[in-house]
From TrEMBL, chain A:
GO biological-process terms attached to the record: mRNA splicing, via spliceosome
Entries under SUPFAM superfamilies matching the protein: WD40 repeat-like
InterPro entries with a match to the protein in the record: WD40/YVTN_repeat-like_dom_sf (IPR015943), WD40_PAC1 (IPR020472), WD40_repeat_CS (IPR019775), WD40_repeat_dom_sf (IPR036322), WD40_rpt (IPR001680), WD_repeat_MORG1 (IPR051980)
SMART domains: WD40
Organism of derivation: Coemansia spiralis
Positions of WD repeats: 9-50, 51-93, 94-135, 221-262, 267-306
Top-level taxon in the UniProt lineage: Eukaryota
The protein's name in its UniProt record: WD repeat-containing protein 83
PROSITE patterns, per the entry: WD_REPEATS_1, WD_REPEATS_2, WD_REPEATS_REGION
Automatic annotation (TrEMBL), chain B:
GO biological process: mRNA processing
Organism: Coemansia spiralis
InterPro entries membership: DUF1604, G_patch_dom
Record domain G-patch: where: 147-167
Molecular function GO terms recorded: RNA binding
Spans annotated as Disordered: 293-326
Pfam families assigned: DUF1604, HTH_TGH
Protein name: G-patch domain-containing protein
A GO term from the CC aspect: nucleus
Lineage of the species this protein comes from: Eukaryota, Fungi, Fungi incertae sedis, Zoopagomycota, Kickxellomycotina
């Protein structure tokens, strides 16, 4: 059975660039081109809080595991904002990037923020530092092009770049693993299967499922359109979902992706480019929520699927 | 006004009676009418201004009475035609110009100072009337001062006068001749006169004398020699060595002394002296029969010399006597033989000119006579190094320079021998000549094959590569780079061997077309097998220690304390470090943290094996100072 629209949220004016679940999945954080971040109850669909402070459109959002800290990045702001979720106040503004910041990630305890920018750098910030200049822990400038997506695990920093590489910075071993995907710009990277696999979406309209152990491509998914915009994707244990420039949400079966090559579902509901797709955090463990996901489009609509 | 005493002067009264007046003292000066008028004006002025003393009023310094001007001769001066601006400019010019005492002589300094003082007084007082005279006087003073030098001024001050010599006073000749000085010692100083001036010494070198090594004595330049019969010959002889250093007669000495200051001889004398040049040869060759060693010309000269029929009857010198003796005896002098030069043999310089007087061209040295053959090394001689068989003999040489002697080759190190290409071992020669590495040859076999226009040459190239790729040390060398073609093949192998870096970035255009998919099958291909090849590269990365701490991960060996900002750690406040330490301490007490707190500055210390549970390092003093304060403050 195909996923159904549970809630359609139209709180934003303009494109919704980023939409995420919190750790529990009860709340949704969305950031749009209207320079606002909105906290919505995923169950009821009610708007809880609006975070104002960005001077430009919000490009990325990340929330800590305890949902106390919210990190967001703006476009031309060239800064990373740290919010107090409960107080809805801006606590820190981390500046240092020379170009617009496109993606951000936060650690589970909220002490580390990683931001990726168009200036080809990935910067690691310390939220416990007293002032902004001392907050920058390290700057990773191995990339040859802008950073499109970031994933922060307990021991690794995974960054995908428009130069067609996915770089995995392992803090434990002190090594960086550079994986090249045919030279096509990589627009999204996700950790799936408990950290064993890597889901990589390229701008040639393909999504690769790569085994992180040996680098073998386990599956490939295509059919959607991803040629000009940064389309995000996500996967759980059984499904792989991705947005598309045609306004549809493509869902593939993980096990049958490379055989048929066609998507399992093509979900419509948006009238614009589907920018981001994210599965419910409980979908990995709870089968009843295996198809619950979130999608946001450029028409300002946010759809909660179940 | 003469002082006339009015005493006994009579004053006639109208009735004719004479009254005598007696005056005591000098008579009062008779005032003129003008003076009387001034006196009256003074009294009136004093009365008007209530001045008590008549002497307080003085006529103004700048006051110029027109009465005086009437009496003075009126003459036109430049100031009469100058307005105030011109006068001011002249005054400024005069102020700029002043007489400096350093440039004035002693005698005229006083005059110049007087002039300056007078001019200054006049200037300050504003009198511009005699400015022309003052200017001319100043110029005169300067002119007089610049004609004498400082030395002259000093000399003049000491009493020297032009024409006197420099030195103490000397007594006159008459005083010296007589005993006048002794008798009148007290007056001797008074009678002394200045010394005579010393004549100038001419330090110009005399170019006429020809003494010294390498100089030939020019007989013709000596008038005395001519008179004595030596230089009068058309082909004069050089005197013997003994005659050269023989004590000369007094006349000759006088002549020599005259020659010292003699001027350059005439052209005729110069030519004569050139013709009379002789070369003294010390070759003790006997029995040549020709003492001059120069054939017919020499004989002719000899005859002209020996016959001396045209020579005047003069006293013979020792040289002539010697020559006559030799000619009579027909023997060569033991010491030397004379090689006269004919006129045609007069050697000229490279530019065609005759050598200067006193010079003569030298003959080229006999190199063969001075060459000594090198001694041969004895056969039984053994070199120390060769006996020890050191590294100099370890590596056999190879090359083509076989002309080197064995002994010399052993003195060269093996490295230098290889450079020189000295051949000693044939096997080594083959090894070094086959300079193509087998690995390169194997790689070249897989690369591009040149010489496509010449298949036979290409085949030879392949054979060369195959032979070089599979050559071993033990196998005989099939090819030797002794031909030009093989050298070319070796160069081509180096050039056209494939590059692994290029292969990874570019694809050959000559690949089969089957590999390229047609466009209509692109979609199907992506659907069926669009798995991409993931290329992995692993690089070293150094995470910062603080990042490791925040992530609660053990820092790797490559972890460094240096962050992206080199000033980060320097700017990091000590308080922040103290806060980190406190937090770490709290975590360590709770047992959550397994990481030792490191505050070391040296990353090398961080690299030590933490897994061995090394003891916690003691924090540095800056941390304590931050917490407990600095005792210095």
């Amino acid at each position: 059975m195909a996923p159904q629209i549970r809630h359609r949220l139209d709180y934003h004016r303009g494109s919704v660039n980023s939409a995420i679940f919190d750790a529990s999945g009860s709340y949704i954080f969305t950031g749009g081109q209207d320079k606002t971040i909105r906290l919505v109850n995923s169950t009821t669909g009610d708007l809880i809080q609006t975070y104002l402070g960005h001077g430009w459109g919000v490009q990325g959002i990340a929330v800590s595991k305890d949902s106390n800290s919210l990190a967001s990045c703006g476009g031309t702001d060239r800064a990373v904002y740290l919010w107090d979720v409960s107080q809805a106040q801006l606590t820190r503004k981390l500046t240092g990037h020379s170009q617009h910041v496109d993606c951000v990630a936060i650690s589970d305890n909220g002490s580390i923020i990683v931001s990726g920018s168009f200036d080809k750098t990935v910067r690691v910030w310390d939220t416990r530092s007293s002032n902004s200049p001392q907050a920058l822990l390290q700057s990773l400038d191995e990339s040859k092009d802008g950073i499109s997506s970031l994933v922060l695990t307990q021991t690794e920093i995974i960054a995908s770049s428009i130069d067609g590489h996915v770089r995995t910075y392992d803090i434990r071993t002190g090594r960086v693993l550079i994986e090249s995907f045919g030279g096509q710009p990589v627009v999204c990277v996700r950790i799936v299967a408990g950290g064993k696999c890597l889901l990589v979406s390229s701008m040639d309209g393909s999504i690769q499922l790569v085994d992180r152990a040996d680098g073998k491509a386990l599956a490939a998914f295509s059919g959607h359109i991803c040629q000009s915009y940064r389309i995000q994707c996500d996967a759980n244990d059984s499904l792989v979902a991705s947005g598309s420039e045609d306004g549809l949400v493509y869902v593939w079966d993980v096990l049958r992706g490379d055989e048929s090559g066609s998507a399992k579902y093509r979900l419509g509901g948006h009238s614009g480019i589907v920018n981001t797709v994210e599965f419910h955090p409980s979908a990995k463990s709870d089968n009843s929520k295996g198809q619950a996901m979130l999608s946001a489009a450029s028409d300002g609509s946010v759809i909660i699927w179940e | 006004m003469s002082k006339r005493s009015y005493s006994n002067s009579s004053f006639e009264v109208g009735d004719g009676d004479r009254v005598d007046f007696i005056h005591v003292g000098t008579e009062f000066p008779r005032l003129t009418k003008r003076q009387e008028r001034q006196q009256v004006q003074r009294l009136k002025y004093n009365q008007q201004h209530k001045l008590k003393d008549d002497d307080t009023w003085q006529p103004s310094i700048s006051f110029v009475s027109s009465q005086n001007k009437r009496a003075e001769k009126m003459s036109q001066k430049p100031e009469d035609f100058m307005d105030a601006q011109d006068i001011a400019e002249n005054q400024r010019d005069t102020e700029l110009m002043s007489i400096n005492g350093n440039f004035s002589s002693i005698s005229t300094r006083i005059e110049a100072q007087k002039l300056v003082e007078e001019s200054g007084n006049k200037r300050y007082k504003g009198i511009v009337g005699t400015m022309a005279e003052w200017m001319s006087a100043e110029f005169r003073a300067i002119q007089v001062a610049t004609t004498e030098s400082t030395g002259d001024r000093i000399m003049h001050a000491m009493g020297w006068k032009l024409g006197h010599g420099i030195g103490p006073l000397v007594p006159t000749r008459s005083q010296l001749s007589s005993n006048f000085e002794k008798a009148h010692e007290s007056d001797s100083k008074k009678a002394k006169v200045p010394p005579r001036p010393v004549s100038l010494v001419n330090f110009a070198p005399n170019q006429n004398h020809s003494h010294g090594i390498g100089y030939g004595i020019n007989i013709g330049s000596l008038e005395g020699a001519e008179n004595s019969g030596i230089g009068s010959h058309s082909s004069g002889f050089l005197p013997t060595l003994g005659a050269l250093f023989k004590s000369k007669s007094k006349k000759a000495e006088n002549l020599d002394s005259v020659d010292l200051v003699k001027k350059e001889k005439t052209k005729k004398q110069r030519e004569k002296s050139a013709r009379s040049k002789y070369l003294l040869s010390f070759d003790a060759s006997d029995d040549e029969g020709d003492i001059y060693g120069d054939g017919a010309s020499g004989n002719a000269r000899q005859n002209s010399v020996l016959s001396s029929s045209k020579q005047p009857a003069t006293s013979k010198s020792s040289l002539e006597r010697l020559v006559e003796e030799d000619s009579s005896k027909n023997s060569v002098r033991n010491a030397f033989k004379m090689v006269p030069l004919s006129t045609s043999d007069a050697r000229l310089c490279y530019d065609g000119k005759r050598p200067l007087s006193g010079f003569e061209l030298a003959y080229p040295a006999d190199t063969e006579a001075c060459h000594y053959d090198s001694l041969d090394v004895p056969a039984d001689f053994s070199w120390i190094r060769h006996v020890r068989k050191s590294r100099w003999d370890a590596v056999p040489a190879s090359g083509s320079q076989s002309q080197l002697q064995l002994s010399e080759a052993k003195l060269i190190t093996a490295k230098d021998r290889a450079k020189l290409g000295i051949i000693e071992d044939p096997s080594f020669k083959q090894r070094t000549q086959s300079a193509l590495d087998p690995d390169i040859a194997k790689a070249a076999l897989e690369g591009f094959m040149p010489f496509s226009d010449d298949p036979t040459k290409q085949q030879r190239y392949k054979n060369f590569l195959q032979a070089a790729a599979f050559v071993t040390n033990n196998s005989p060398v099939n090819h030797v780079l002794d031909t030009r073609e093989t050298q070319e093949f070796a160069q081509m192998a180096h050039v056209f061997r494939p590059n692994a870096t290029m292969l990874s970035r570019f694809t050959s255009s000559t690949q089969k077309a089957a590999e390229a998919l047609p466009e209509e099958n692109v979609v199907a291909a992506t659907n069926t097998s669009n798995k991409k090849t993931v290329q992995r590269t692993v690089l070293e990365w150094a995470p910062s220690l603080l990042l490791c701490k925040r992530m609660e991960v053990k820092p790797p060996l490559s972890a460094t304390k240096q962050t992206h900002d080199s000033n980060f750690e320097r700017q990091r406040a000590p308080r922040q470090r103290a806060a980190d330490f406190i937090q770490w301490n709290a975590n360590s007490n709770s047992g959550n943290s397994e990481i030792p707190f490191v505050l070391a500055d040296d990353p090398a210390e961080v690299k030590m094996d933490i897994s061995k549970q090394t003891p916690v390092k003691k924090p540095d003093m800056s941390l304590f100072k931050t917490i407990f304060g600095d005792s210095d403050n």
